[in-house]
Specification:
By secondary structure, this protein is an alpha+beta fold. It is built from 9 helices and 19 strands. Helices cover 22% and strands 29% of the residues. The strands form 4 sheets. Strands 10-11-12-9-3-13 form a 6-stranded mixed beta sheet, with helices on both faces. The chain has a 6-stranded antiparallel beta sheet with strand order 18-15-16-17-14-19. A 5-stranded antiparallel beta sheet has the order 5-6-7-4-8, covered by helices on one side. It comes from hydrothermal vent metagenome.
């Protein structure tokens, strides 16, 4: 999520971070003064990151469950206060308008998504409310989010809550905090709360965790193989192309939602021609989400894929999540930006991926 936005920003939270050494550009914390060392810290220590590039929509009302069930790719009925869920919101052609993480409290549902998609998502979702007893509101100016990752993360967090979520997607609500366990090579947690509660937690955690800019957290998401749809990639991918069926972001038994027929047909016919890969490229220029990829050396070559997200690697160059034609990925060389651009080096998948849809 590299693209800033003009949507509602939690100024109180950003002022707090600025007072604590954050360097903020276009409403995003880019670093705490030493980006290179902060990236390296992700390899060796526990890091603490601001998640302001993620926006938050609250969904309330007695028809909330049915409303969300009819809109998103996953079975919302399986969500409870102790379990969050990845979801895709698709257009009628099955293309993802947004990627979301949905969690709930006792009374309300919350939608985490790229902040540069929040305004359009909120406006379009409201078009489907009609007579349903549902209210959708942007609460990004009231809530804030932080990420905590590293070997020592569970120990640090256990000093502030009595019970830790142990499995991926599990949630704990305690002391005004919503703590979500994420996948990753080392323990990772995403924590959301009202601003005042998060101020207190940040002050406590920063004494033993290294504060870092959002690019470091984005790199950890890339390493974990978790895609984020942003404004420049909206409507570019069917959920299976970004491995959402592997990640548990799609239910094939829940019933209808926008684009469901396309997503289901791809699944039951098993005709997946593109999927997401982890890759590395040696370049000084950070690629944009949505940038095209090409077969190496072919004159007037057509694009064989796109960048989903990219971030500088602690060890140099750039790490990326990319969606590629499977046939090209398995047989040919791939370049960034043009057929003569820097070559991609495909890495081991962070999780087992079935090339069937």
């Amino acid at each position: 999520m590299n693209n800033p936005t003009n949507n509602v920003v939690n100024r109180s939270w950003q002022n707090f971070l600025s007072d604590n050494g954050a360097e903020i550009q276009q409403d995003q914390v880019v670093s705490f003064g030493d980006p290179q060392q902060e990236h390296k810290a992700a390899l060796t220590t526990t890091i603490l990151a601001d998640l302001s590039p993620q926006g938050l929509i609250k969904v309330s009302g007695e028809d909330s469950l049915d409303f969300l069930q009819n809109q998103f790719s996953n079975d919302i009925r399986e969500i409870n206060p102790q379990l969050s869920q990845l979801n895709a919101w698709c257009n009628a052609k099955g293309r993802m308008l947004a990627s979301l993480r949905v969690f709930r409290t006792t009374d309300d549902y919350f939608l985490l998504l790229a902040r540069d998609l929040l305004e359009t998502t909120l406006k379009r979702l409201r078009m489907f409310v009609l007579r349903s007893k549902v209210m959708l509101e942007d609460v990004s100016n009231e809530w804030a989010g932080i990420g905590l990752a590293g070997t020592n993360a569970p120990v640090l967090l256990a000093r502030h809550i009595n019970h830790l979520p142990e499995k991926t997607n599990q949630v704990v609500h305690e002391n005004g905090l919503v703590v979500i366990r994420l996948t990753g090579a080392t323990p990772r947690f995403q924590i959301h709360a009202q601003t005042s509660a998060l101020n207190t937690l940040w002050q406590a955690l920063k004494t033993e965790a290294t504060p870092v800019g959002y690019p470091v957290w984005n790199w950890l998401e890339i390493q974990a193989g978790i895609p984020h749809i942003v404004a420049s990639t909206t409507e570019a991918f069917v959920p299976q192309m970004v491995n959402y069926s592997t990640l548990g972001g799609v239910s094939f038994t829940k019933g209808c939602y926008p684009g469901q027929e396309v997503v289901a047909r791809m699944h039951y016919l098993g005709k997946l021609k593109r999927r997401m890969y982890l890759a590395h490229v040696e370049t000084e220029t950070l690629p944009d989400a949505g940038e095209n990829l090409f077969p190496a050396g072919e004159n007037e070559a057509q694009s064989c894929g796109k960048v989903v997200q990219a971030e500088r690697s602690p060890e140099g160059g750039v790490d990326l999540l990319v969606v590629l034609q499977i046939a090209v990925a398995e047989t040919g060389d791939i370049c960034l930006g043009s057929e003569n651009g820097p070559p991609l080096q495909l890495q081991n998948d962070p999780y087992p991926v079935d090339n069937k849809a």
